[in-house]
Amino acid sequence: MSAMSAEDAAASNSEANGPYYSLRVAEVIDETADARSIVLEIPAELTERFAYESGQFLSFRVEVAGHRLVRCYSLASAPGIDSAHKVTIKRVVDGRASNWMNDVVSVGDSLEVMPPSGVFILHKRDTPLMLLSGGSGITPCISILKTALETTSRPIKLLYANRDDRSIIFKDELNKMLSAHSDRLEIVHRLDDVHGFCNAALIVQEIGPRRDADFYICGPGPFMDVVEAGLEGLGISADQIHIERFESPDTPSATGSAPIDEKDGQTITISLDGTETEVVAAEGETILAAARRAGLEPPFACEEAYCGCCMAKVVEGEVEMQMNDGGIDQRQIDHGWILTCQGIAKGKVRIEYPD
Ligand SMILES: Cc1cc2nc3c(=O)[nH]c(=O)nc-3n(C[C@H](O)[C@H](O)[C@H](O)COP(=O)(O)OP(=O)(O)OC[C@H]3O[C@@H](n4cnc5c(N)ncnc54)[C@H](O)[C@@H]3O)c2cc1C
After folding, report:
1. Residue 219 and residue 137 in contact, taking contact as beta carbons nearer than 8 Å
2. For the chain, how big is the Rg over CA atoms in Å?
3. Is the separation of the CB atoms in 176 and 147 below 8 Å?
4. Among 38, 94, 152, 189, which is least packed, fewest CB within 10 Å?
5. How far apart are CA 310 and CA 147, in angstroms?
6. pTM of the full structure
7. 23 has pLDDT over 90
8. In the chain, at which residue ranges do the beta strands (DSSP E only) sit?
9. Burial environment of residue 281 by CB neighbours within 10 A (0 to 12, 13 to 18, 19 or more)
C-alpha cells in the first residue's frame, strides 16, 4: 500500500479524482483469530459523502503483491449509534485482500475507499425481523440489528451459524444486546462442531410461526442455499426476503467463457493500470465482460449494478447503462463515470479506470 501524506490525501479527496477517497485507519480491533475490524476516520468535509444506512458496505481498492484489487466490506457499525465507520474482515483461505487487511493494515495508514452503497438495508415495517447469518455474514446483520433495536419495537431473532465457538464474531456485543433487550431479541448460535451444518428443516423450525417476518440473509454460499430452500419451502413471499451475497456470481462474462461473435462489435479503448488496450465488445456485451474476455483484470464485484466496484470514466464516445441499482450516483454520472458491468458502448469509446 502506498503511504500518503495528509496533504496528498486531502488533494485526492475530490469528486474529479474518481470514486475513491483516502481515509485514515483510526483503530484496528482483533475480533477473532481470523477476523479483524478496521475503524475509519471520516474527515468533516466527507461526512455527508460517507453517510450510510445500516446494512450498506464500503468498497476498498488495495494493492496486494502488485495486483490492484477492489473488495467490498459491509459496515458492522450503525449510523447514529456507533461513532465511527467500522468494517470487519474475515480471512478467506488463500484470499488476497482479506489476508492483506488482516496482516498488513495498521493504525495511521490511509486506505482508498468508495462511499457507502448497497440495498441490503432495513425497510420500514412493523412485522418481526429475522436475521440469518453465517460467519462474516454477521457484519451487515449486526448493523441492521442495532438500528432495529434502537429505532423500532419489532421482535427480532438472529440465527448465527459458525464453525465453532471461537469463530463467533461480536460475541460480547451480541450478549450485551441480548441482556438489554431480552424481551424482544432472541439469538440462536449454531456451531458446526457441536450441532452439525444447518439444513432447510432446521431453518423452518427456527422460523416457527414468524412467517410474516422480514428475512435478512447473509453468509457463505452453502448456508444461503439452505436458508433459501427453507424459505422457499414455506412459500415466503419474495418481498420479505433480503439477501446480501458476499461472493460474485459466476457469469458467462468471466474470462474463459465461450467465444463471442465480434463482427458487429464496438471498439473500446481501455486504460487500466497505466496500460491502454483495445478490445471489441460484441453486440449487447458489457464493457466489463468484453474487458475480461480479452484477458484484462478490471475491478468488479456484484455485477448487478449496486456495488460500484467496476466504475470507470468515459473519456470519449457514448456508453449506455442498462441499469443502476444504486452503484453510482448522479454526481458521478455527471462527471462521466459509468458502471462497466452495465455499460454498453454505442460506437467507438475510450474508457479510463481510476488510477
Ligand atoms: C457486498 C459485499 C459485502 C461484503 N462484506 C464482507 C464483510 O463484511 N466481511 C468479509 O470478510 N467479507 C465481505 N465480503 C467479501 C469480500 O469482498 C471478499 O470477497 C473476500 O474478503 C475475499 O476476498 P480476497 O481478495 O481475500 O479473496 P480472493 O483473492 O478474491 O480469493 C477468493 C477465493 O478464490 C480463491 N482464488 C483466488 N485466486 C484464485 C485463482 N487465481 N484461481 C483459483 N482460485 C483463486 C482463493 O483461494 C479464495 O478461496 C463482501 C462482499 C460483497 C460483494
Report:
1. yes
2. 21
3. no
4. 94
5. 30
6. 0.87
7. yes
8. 21-32, 35-41, 57-64, 67-74, 85-90, 110-117, 129-134, 156-162, 185-191, 214-218, 241-244, 266-272, 275-281, 311-321, 337-339, 343-352
9. buried
Phi then psi for residue 275, to 5 deg, are -120, 135
Residue indicated by cell numbers 484489487:
69
Query: Band of the pLDDT at 331, cuts 50, 70, 90?
Result: confident
Q: Which atom of ligand 1 is nearest to the CA of 35?
A: 11
Q: Which residues make beta-bridge pairs with 339? A: 311
Does pLDDT of 1 surpass 80? no
Cell of 250: 459466476
Ligand 1 mutation pick, 37, 72, 250, max ligand atoms within 8 A of CB: 72
Q: Which residue has the cell 435478512?
A: 216
Q: Which residue has the cell 413471499?
A: 237
Contact 79, 62 (CB under 8 A): no
